[in-house]
Specification:
Blueprint (H helix, E strand, L loop, with lengths): L5 H13 L4 H10 L2 H30 L15 E2 L6 H6 L1 H4 L3 E6 L5 H14 L4 E5 H13 L3 H9 L3 E7 L6 H14 L4 E6 L6 H5 L2 H13 L1 E6 L4 H4 L10
Parallel strand pairs: 2-5, 2-6, 3-4, 4-5
Antiparallel strand pairs: 1-6
Length: 251
């Protein structure tokens, strides 16, 4: 192996180990490989790793079921009130996911809550983390249907595989007793296990109306506030600012 640079051999060894080649196979190859062969195999493995990462992100994106693809790029945080001592960089770091912390994005319609929730979710996907996205109405419908078809445990396990659960538009549609109970079950299961992002136009004091049960709402709020942060979305509606019907420019 005198004709091989030690650094090249070490780099290839690390790559092959990352692909779960056995030490015996690596040693046997390096014992007789030329510098050109080492370079060619290293490039082949790097290419394969890139393909696998791309396919993994594609698979995670499909599984997340985002309604649109939105990112942090170009997002205007000017009207977003973050908690004191918490920055945009803190949010983008995704450290809250490792800590199983939660967010409530609160603000009126069109303020960018869903966009930011999707951006956070897509950043998690890019980091190789499983995400699930539901509107509150979609999630409740899926849960009640699964319950009636005796598939609730299976659906709950699938949701539990995620590192981040996004529940969009909480409060836009009233919940019946069964739906409220099942949604509570999902949200409680997230507590200290995975992160939860909720977007809503309903303040905490009115969640009892949404769930049809003040005690149920209080129990949910208690869990979210324990390891969670409230982000307020102010300003005017971004959709109305660019409404074609009002003669405004699209974009």
């Amino acid at each position: 192996m005198a004709y091989l640079k030690q650094g090249d051999a070490m780099a290839l060894r690390a790559l092959m180990r990352s692909m779960y080649f056995s030490a015996d196979t690596i040693d046997a190859f390096l014992a007789s490989a030329t510098a050109g062969q080492v370079a060619a195999v290293a490039e082949m493995i790097r290419r394969e790793m890139r393909v696998r990462e791309r396919r993994k992100r594609e698979r995670l994106t499909r599984k997340a079921r985002f309604p649109q693809i939105k990112s942090f790029d170009g997002y205007d945080f000017a009207q977003v009130a973050l908690p004191e001592g918490y920055s945009v960089d803190d949010l983008k770091s995704l450290a809250f996911v490792d800590a199983a912390q939660d967010f409530v994005f609160h603000g009126q319609t069109g303020r960018g809550k869903t966009h930011l929730a999707i951006a956070v979710g897509l950043a998690c996907v890019d980091a190789g983390l499983e995400v699930r996205f539901f509107t509150a109405a979609e999630l409740v419908l899926s849960l009640t249907r699964a319950n009636r078809e005796h598939r609730l445990e299976q659906l709950m396990k699938d949701i539990a595989r995620s590192r981040l659960l996004i529940i969009d538009e909480l409060g836009y549609v009233p919940l019946d007793q069964e739906g409220a109970r099942l949604l509570f079950q999902v949200m409680s299961d997230c507590y200290e296990r995975r992160s939860l992002v909720i977007t809503t136009n309903i303040e905490f004091s009115k969640w009892g109306v949404v769930f049809g049960d003040d005690k149920l709402a209080s129990a949910i709020i208690d869990r979210i506030m324990h390891h969670g942060r409230l982000i307020e979305f102010n300003g005017t509606s971004k959709r109305m600012d660019h409404a074609l019907m009002l003669g405004k420019m699209d974009g």
